[in-house]
Amino acid sequence: xxxxxxxxxxxxxxxxxxxxxxxxxxxxxxxxxxxxxxxxxxxxxxxxxxxxxxxxxxxxxxxxxxxxxxxxxxxxxxxxxxxxxxxxxxxxxxxxxxxxxxxxxxxxxxxxxxxxxxxxxxxxxxxxxxxxxxxxxxxxxxxxxxxxxxxxxxxxxxxxxxxxxxxxxxxxxxxxxxxxxxxxxxxxxxxxxxxxxxxxxxxxxxxxxxxxxxxxxxxxxxxxxxxxxxxxxxxxxxxxxxxxxxxxxxxxxxxxxxxxxxxxxxxxxxxxxxxxxxxxxxxxxxxxxxxxxxxxxxxxxxxxxxxxxxxxxxxxxxxxxxxxxxxxxxxxxxxxxxxxxxxxxxxxxxxxxxxxxxx
Amino acid sequence: xxxxxxxxxxxxxxxxxxxxxxxxxxxxxxxxxxxxxxxxxxxxxxxxxxxxxxxxxxxxxxxxxxxxxxxxxxxxxxxxxxxxxxxxxxxxxxxxxxxxxxxxxxxxxxxxxxxxxxxxxxxxxxxxxxxxxxxxxxxxxxxxxxxxxxxxxxxxxxxxxxxxxxxxxxxxxxxxxxxxxxxxxxxxxxxxxxxxxxxxxxxxxxxxxxxxxxxxxxxxxxxxxxxxxxxxxxxxxxxxxxxxxxxxxxxxxxxxxxxxxxxxxxxxxxxxxxxxxxxxxxxxxxxxxxxxxxxxxxxxxxxxxxxxxxxxxxxxxxxxxxxxxxxxxxxxxxxxxxxxxxxxxxxxxxxxxxxxxxxxxxxxxxxxxxxxxxxxxxxxxxxxxxxxxxxxxxxxxxxxxxxxxxxxxxxxxxxxxxxxxxxxxxxxxxxxxxxxxxxxxxxxxxxxxxxxxxxxxxxxxxxxxxxxxxxxxxxxxxxxxxxxxxxxxxxxxxxxxxxxxxxxxxxxxxxxxxxxxxxxxxxxxx
Lengths: 359, 526
What we know:
The complex is a heterodimer of chains A (359) and B (526).
Chain A: E1 2-5, H1 9-32, H2 41-69, H3 82-90, H4 111-140, H5 147-174, H6 183-190, E2 192-195, H7 197-216, H8 229-255, E3 259-264, E4 269-272, H9 274-279, H10 299-313, E5 318-326, E6 332-344, E7 347-357
Antiparallel strand pairs in A: 1-2, 3-4, 3-7, 5-6, 6-7
Helix pairs in contact in A: 1-2, 4-5
Chain B: H1 2-24, H2 64-74, H3 78-82, H4 86-89, E1 92-95, E2 101-104, H5 121-124, H6 148-152, H7 172-177, H8 184-191, H9 228-231, E3 234-235, E4 238-239, H10 257-260, H11 268-272, H12 279-283, E5 293-298, E6 305-306, E7 309-310, E8 312-318, E9 321-326, E10 330-335, E11 341-345, E12 349-351, E13 363-364, E14 366-368, E15 386-400, E16 405-406, H13 420-423, H14 426-437, E17 445-455, H15 469-472, H16 494-525
Parallel strand pairs in B: 5-15, 13-17
Antiparallel strand pairs in B: 1-2, 3-4, 5-10, 6-7, 8-9, 9-10, 11-15, 12-14, 15-16, 15-17
């Protein structure tokens, strides 16, 4: 399990403020509607009006944020994967299948959420705000008072309120369908969402992809023609820089007398460094590339190495396990091994690790 | 710790601040509220003359007319003024909604209490501001017939007897020497007793108002002690105020705004209600707060005898209401602490007269005109109709079966005169009554259900006891019977309501089913 930062501070602020205001509006609104008597009509009207005006101020902030950050795009309904998502909720969720879509900072919603939240934030809530404004105008204003107009406005407002109550119930329930039942709620409070390692990787990749797209966007030359050369150059420099860092890392490894190795999914060596070769030079292993890792070990050690290998292939990391190697002169030397899995296309493709001599 | 502080700053603290603001801020405040303490009551000078020193009044007056003659010697023009007043003529000119000019009053309009004056003047004239109205030939042009003392007696000893003359016990010289401005007792001596007894007719006008607590009436209670004429302002014996059982047009009305302005509340919302809600609607939550008023009068059951004699009996229906039967009057119901009924009213009414044909049952004797639609046109500066509280008087009274008109029965008179209360013969009573009224009677009578509407203006409660929002803005609204407009809190659309609740139920069921399946499938996989 990993935790990924999904919700920024303002988003968490507006979500919970909106929650507070909508619950207040519902509670007082249905009292004004006459459904029950809780705090008295006068108080209910006062709080309802206050909450309504506060909500309008908040909505201005929200829409400003969505517009400025471009995050309004994630509300735009899409047909892509929508049936997969429906299938997941009516079938997959009961069979422990994986979510068909992934949550990232820049794309928080699955296709069903997109449709729902689009309807909510861009249809129902504006409808409620407009009908609420007209309601206040026709009920309170001496000039505008008109009971014939008030009736349809009130009916629209009440109808919208019923839809919102239904939404809140479904919304609260669906928060429990995350990685763990409380993952989504915790994320909305702290910003950090719990998810599986695979989902986390997707999220991180999506973040990198998004940031790259962001960097790539809108570069033009003096003639006003779009020109990606600067981006390409910068990107290759970054890649070179990363490569240089890796080379530097290997160099440092060598200097530190730490042996490095990489093994494929079948248990055969793919790569070893000089320190590794030096440590094993007292054995008759020769060039290890392509050879099986069980080579030249006692039966007992073979078992121990297999065990470590299987453990890592299951996605776990081992640190500091003691492993022996047979020297030509018949003596045994020991080293510690730390290793973790390597991935290719989201699947474990082998492992890599480091050894430190103990003899 | 750092995480916690962040959550505190981003979520918890803002929500607490926002919620406390939403829950406590009250924007509904008038910046310059009307100050009730600034209402100026008319400060009357001390009475300009001590009438006990007047030589003209040092006489041994034998009759009321002699007193009036003495009054007019000095107050030479007042008699002419008063002879235009409806307290004298018992009719006044008014215009109907169609523009027709009518003469209306006790004299010629039927009601559903004692029904009418004609042929019963001997009794009714106890409340006529004149001497001798109960006699055969009353002269409306003789100023000396005016009863000045009924209204101007300040001793509290003046009483009228049958026929309208002073009661024998009254010391006319003493009363004449101690006259003054009319007070509550003067007005109340008649207006409290309409319908034949205290509070029978109006429900909000009764003898308790002479000395009551603030809870009964904020204006007329013993501490504030506002007199009738402070609101019912009077110039040259022309008294403001109407009763819409004998008035048809929106003029010469007495209003709360004479003192209280049109924006008397500290709340803007409440002040906005002024456009459509009469002050009385919220500020008179109940009426007949001290003594009961008659709400039902069924004449059709009158005339039963016990051992050959008329009788009277009473039964309590509930704590606040009594059933009553009398051979003379029929069945009646008295009640107190009543919640008013509410109507739209624009100051005009349609009055059913003796000549008008009966076309409905119950027959409404005075239709109070008005509806929500009167307010709907914003360009109309008057916004005339408002919701008013009323007492609805219900009853059954005699009508001419063939002519389909109401009958004026002769009720009060000696045996053999055809008076119902002596002879108990409806046919004879109808015949003599209609004869006196000068209208035809076919000889066949029956009883018809009638209603009359009495606007409630008095017994204004203290502001703490006035109606609160949910008395009207709730499902069991006091305004339940008024339609044609949307009232928040009262009205709903059943389709939206059922649809909305179904939507929520389906959502909840869906959530429950889905979560149950998830829990079951999880167990299976483990």
